[in-house]
Amino acid sequence: MLVSTGGTGVSSYARQLLQAHATISRDHALLSDRALLDQPAPGPFGRAGRWLRALLPGPRSAHLPGGSDGQELLVSPDVFRVAQVYFDVHRRPLKVRLPGPPGIMHWTYPVPLAAIGWHNLYTVHDVIPLCHPDLTHIDGRRYRRMLARLGECAARFIAVSETARDEIVRVTGCRPNFVIDCSLAVDTTPADPAMLPEGLAPRGFLLVCGTVEKRKNVARLLDAYRASNLGMPLVIAGPDGWGAADIAPLLGATPGAIRLPYLDRPTLRALIGHARGLVMPSLAEGFGLPVAEAMALGTPVIASNRGALAETAGGAALAIDPEDTAGLCTALRQLAENDALCVELAAVGRRNADRFTPTHFAERLTRAYAAVMAEPL
User: Mean of the per-residue pLDDT values for the chain?
Assistant: First the structure.
C-alpha cells in the first residue's frame, strides 16, 4: 500500500510504486485523503478546522469509498494535512487504522503518519535540509525531529540512491541496514515530438527541468549560458520554488532563455526526449530523475560531478563542477556544437539508464519487502 498527495516528485514516485506493485502482488491499494483523486482534499472550516481536528489524540481510520472493490483505494479524509498539524501539536506521528489483514504500508515520503499493526516503510528522498540547510526553506529542526519519530515506528527507511542512503545514515545516526536503497524507475515509453511547445524544434534547444529553486543552480547556469553566446534557446521548465523570485530578473536579462511554468506530463516528456541536451548542474539532489529520464530517451546530459547526480549519471554524462561557471559554459558549447559527442553521450546514456528499468525497480522493492515481512510486527 502507498500514499500520494500530489507534487511532481512525489506523484512520479507514487506512479512508479503503483506500477511496480502491479507486478509484485495483486493485493495492493492506494491511500488517499479524498474519494476522487482529481478532486481537492476536504477541509471543513479551513485551517482552523484542521487544527481542531488535529487536537483529537486518537487514531484515524481509513475506509473503502462507496462502489470500491477494495483493491485500489482507501480513504481517510484530509488525513495528510491533519497529520502535519497533529505532529506540530503532539510531536508524534498520527496513527491510522487500515482495514484488512496487516501487511506493508509504504509511505512515499516522510509524512507523520503510521499504520497501526503494519510494517511501516518511509521513502526518504533526501536529507538536504540537514546536510545543506542553506539550499532549502524546509525547517531542518522539524525535519530532523520527524525522521527521529518515524524511525521509532518504521520497519525501514527506503532511499532512492546510495548517496542519499549514506547521508540518511550519517545525519540520523541509525544503523546502516535500517535504510535500504531501492533507487527509482524511469518511464521508457517514447516521447511524442508533437507535444513540444510552439516554437521549439526537436534537438533545437537545451533544457533545464524541475522546480526552479536555489539548489538547482539556475542563476549560475544563466551566467554560463550568457557567456556561451549560443544561438540555441535554453528552456527552463518547471514550477517556481524557493528563491525563484531572485532568478526572475536574470531570466529577463538573458536573451534566448525561455521560461515555461508547470507542464503536463506528455509535454514535459516531449521536452526531455527531444532536447539537444538536458542540463542539470544542481548543488544537491536525492537522485536526479530528469538525468535518468533523459538518458533513457536518448538525450545527452550535462550533470554535476558530485553527490547523487554523479551516481545517477554513472559516468555517462558530461560532468561539470556545478560551482565552475566557466566550465559549465564550455560544456554548454560542447553539447550545442559537437554532434559526435552528442551521439556518444546518447549511446552511453541509454546503457546507463538500463539500471533504472521498472523491472529492476520492482526487483529491488521485492527484496526489501521480503526482508521486512520476515520480521515480526
Answer: 91
Q: Which of 1-15, 197-211, 357-371 has the lowest mean pLDDT?
A: 1-15
User: Counting beta carbons within 10 angstroms of the beta carbon of residue 97, is it exposed (0 to 12), middle (13 to 18) or buried (19 or more)?
Assistant: middle
Q: How far is CA 120 from CA 4, 137, 167, 321, in A?
A: 15, 27, 21, 38
Q: How far apart are CA 228 and CA 171, in angstroms?
A: 39
3-state secondary structure 194-258: HHCCCCCCCCCCEEEECCECHHHCHHHHHHHHHHHCCCCCEEEECCECCCHHHHHHHHHCCCCEE
The grid cell for 203 is 534537438
Which phi and psi (to 5°) does residue 72 adopt? -125, -30
With 0-12 CB in 10 A as exposed, 13-18 as middle and 19+ as buried, what is 61?
middle
Query: Is the model's pLDDT at 244 over the cut of 60?
Result: yes
Cβ within 8 Å of residue 152, ≥6 positions away:
none
Give the pLDDT score at 370.
95
Residues 230, 224: Cα–Cα separation, whole Å: 10
Cα–Cα–Cα angle for 312, 256, 245, nearest 5°?
70
Q: Provide the pLDDT confidence category of residue 4 given band limits of 50, 70 and 90.
A: very low
Which grid coordinates belong to 274?
Answer: 527531444
Mean pLDDT (whole number) for 166-187: 96
**Distance in angstroms (rounded) separating the CA atoms of residues 57 and 374:** 32
Beta carbons of 314 and 161 less than 8 angstroms apart: no
Domains annotated on the chain, with CATH: 2-185+358-373 (3.40.50), 193-355 (3.40.50.2000)
> Which residues lie across from 277 on neighbouring strands?
206
